[in-house]
Design brief:
With 678 residues, the chain is of the alpha+beta class. The chain has 16 helices and 39 strands.
């Protein structure tokens, strides 16, 4: 491990033999189009989701000798996949590639005759699907319902209706279209030991554009494939020019870190019809959850300020433009609000603003206006949701919406919630500091935070249970052992005995299993194995990073790395991460379309700002205080850019080195290096 940038960015490819994703959940994405890769056979894919156009039941399937070609092996890349199979002594290799900057895909396949005799290969290409233009892309995958009229012309098929078209072009010889069966038929001759390559191009969108794109792709397929590969290489290179590269003695940690950051690229849309350019969705694969949830986007406040601060500003303003006391998301095309109030909204938006300003030094952002109010005024307004400074402090009653844990059975977690009220302390302090930076007369949120702390201890803390009660609508006390309570670790809202008490539950009998962290204690009656995200079977993929970061920053590296080592399999066994991953086996939540969750980026963020001990204070000083895990005592971050500095961090055993610009500082573990403001 040394201060050396690799020649190429980390690869995100994964061997299909390692992937745990079911076929229905594996997709490809290029920023304008996503489709479902049907990896069990070599020559098909299905579903076209290219906002605002959708053909959810689209199917392209090629059969040889009347049969599908079963896949023997495949390799996945974010925008393309390679598959291989064999049928009747014919080797079949295919590449499915989503083309850069287009709502279009290419299927290139090679047929190789392995015998000493000529072979005639009959092909049937099924092409089917309805088409719609959909303006609302929310949680569910949009569904197409409007039939198309087919027009086949030599080697091109256009399936069109009033919404637009799906166009398919090919260089296969003499395809004959059978409209009733919705398929092309042709025959390919393969001399002995010969191989031939063919292409099918698919494009969706306005009729003229789709027809043009499909024709261009099949006319110059090699060029478009090379351009798609080069474009992805540029995206990956750009990612690791703006964000640091992790080097680790244990390569599983590198894979975990890289896979976490991949979700930035897999949710980055560049669609002309979208409100923001670029636009970051909550999930994108195969069309699900293309709206932007503050719950998920809000987890990545550090990373966004390093990778794409301009987009971070625009997304913050988009969230502030909707009523965050009533809604949790906005839609990508219209920017309209979507969904009910998530109580976490206020914390998420305040910390996005806070860490954006700290990590970039851009205090001027606080004076920009949204809906006639400055950003800093919005901060104070969001901090005081549920509070009235003209009255004594109270613990907020969040009502009866079941919008925090969303438990599925008869069990509830509503009204006066200890984790949500406890989290007010930290974001009150952040709001107060933002006011100070903006020169705004303070409303003394620090004193209010202390009043909340006293109320929380006096009203809800149970020394007997080492846990906090929650209160129902009648003020009756209950215990709910949710992982959310660990989000308070490191906050001054907790006294030392309370922090120790909460952490006493972080054990194998309650919250830990071999492959992860449970969102509900296994001893809680509300524990539900099926309800992965907050019900107990596992936890949201966005929970690991923040909790690990808090454990590192409170001087508990052993506990942090204990959680990390349990989830390192995420980097090796999943092309991208579902919103929720199982803790007691290697598996993921399968009952929602939410895939490649953008909140997953917070895992890499936890490594940067937890394991490496990075911190920026309100005066612009940067602290580096790394704690390498025992399973990988040698670690390094190369190319960190923070507050105008470029840094490399190298940890080797009991010492570490910080190279910032032209200065090199060495220190022992446990002795932080502080870089003064430039």
């Amino acid at each position: 491990i040394a201060f050396q940038m690799p020649d190429t960015p980390p690869s995100f490819a994964i061997d299909g033999k390692a992937s745990l994703l079911e076929e229905a959940d594996l997709g490809l994405f290029n920023g304008m189009l996503t489709t479902n890769l049907t990896f069990r056979d070599v020559l098909s894919f299905r579903g076209l989701y290219a906002p605002p156009y959708v053909s959810s039941d689209f199917q392209l399937e090629v059969r040889l000798f009347g049969e599908k070609v079963r896949t023997d092996e495949y390799f996945w890349h974010p925008f393309q996949a390679a598959r291989h199979g064999r049928i009747n002594d014919v080797e079949v290799h295919s590449e499915t590639v989503l083309c850069d900057g287009l709502r279009a895909a290419l299927l290139r396949f090679t047929l190789e005759n392995r015998t000493a005799r000529a072979v005639r290969v009959p092909l049937e290409i099924t092409i089917d699907g309805r088409l719609d233009r959909n303006e609302v892309w929310d949680f569910s995958r949009p569904q197409s319902a409007t039939p198309t009229r087919n027009r086949a012309d030599e080697r091109r098929l256009v399936k069109a209706n009033a919404a637009g078209a799906v166009a398919v072009a090919t260089d296969l010889p003499d395809p004959a279209w059978e409209d009733a069966a919705s398929l092309w038929k042709t025959t390919v001759s393969l001399p002995a030991k010969a191989k031939r390559t063919f292409h099918l191009a698919v494009a969706i969108g306005p009729k003229s554009a789709a027809a043009r794109d499909a024709q261009q792709l099949v006319h110059s397929p090699a060029r478009f494939i090379e351009e798609a590969q080069a474009a992805w290489q540029r995206k990956a290179q750009d990612l690791f020019e703006k964000l640091p590269t992790l080097h680790a003695q244990d390569k599983r940690l590198e894979a975990f870190y890289n896979r976490s950051l991949l979700h930035l690229l897999l949710n980055q849309w560049r669609v002309p019809e979208f409100k923001l350019q670029p636009y970051y969705s909550t999930g994108s694969m195969i069309g699900g959850c293309a709206c932007s949830y503050l719950w998920d986007f809000g987890n990545n406040h550090h990373v966004f300020s390093l990778y794409d601060p301009a987009a971070q500003r625009e997304h913050i303003k988009a969230f502030l433009s909707i009523d965050l006391t009533k809604h949790f998301a906005f839609l990508p095309i219209t920017g309209q609000a979507y969904g009910p109030w998530y109580y976490i909204n206020q914390e998420k938006i305040i910390f996005h603003i806070y860490h954006y300003v700290l990590n970039t030094g851009d205090v001027r952002f606080l004076f920009e206006k949204v809906n006639g109010k400055t950003i800093v005024d919005h901060v104070v307004e969001q901090a005081l949701v549920g509070d009235d400074l003209s009255k004594d402090a109270v613990l907020v009653d969040y009502g009866d919406g079941n919008h925090h844990l969303e438990l599925r059975r008869e069990y509830r977690y509503d009204h006066v919630l200890p984790d949500m009220n406890g989290r007010r302390y930290a974001y009150y302090l952040a709001a107060d500091e933002l006011c100070r930076m903006a020169g705004k007369a303070t409303v003394n949120l620090r004193n209010r935070a202390e009043a909340i702390k006293r109320l929380l201890r006096r009203t809800l803390w149970s020394p007997k249970h080492n846990w906090f009660f929650w209160l129902d609508a009648k003020g009756k006390k209950h215990l709910r052992y949710t992982v959310q309570m660990f989000k308070l670790i490191g906050s001054p809202v907790l006294d030392a005995d309370q922090e120790r008490g909460l952490l006493s539950h972080l054990n194998e009998d309650e919250f830990l299993s071999d492959y992860g962290l449970h969102s509900m204690s296994k001893k809680d009656p509300a524990y539900d194995q099926v309800d992965i995200d907050n019900g107990g079977g596992g936890c949201c993929s966005c929970f690991i990073g923040p909790i690990v970061k808090k454990l590192y920053r409170t001087g508990r590296p052993d506990r942090a790395e204990d959680i990390l080592r349990r989830v390192l399999w995420w980097g090796d066994r999943l092309p991208y991460w579902s919103d929720s991953l199982v803790a007691n086996r290697k598996d993921y939540r399968r009952d929602t379309p939410l895939q490649n969750a953008i909140g997953s980026v917070s895992a890499a963020q936890g490594i940067m700002f937890g394991m490496f001990g990075l911190n920026v204070d309100v005066d612009g000083r940067i602290t580096v205080n790394p704690r390498p895990p025992r399973f990988s005592p040698r670690i390094a971050l190369h190319g960190l850019r923070l507050r105008g500095r470029r840094m490399d961090l190298l940890v080797n055993g009991n010492s570490f080195t910080v190279r910032a610009d032209d200065r090199t500082v060495r220190s022992a573990l446990g002795r932080p290096v502080i870089l003064e403001r430039l």
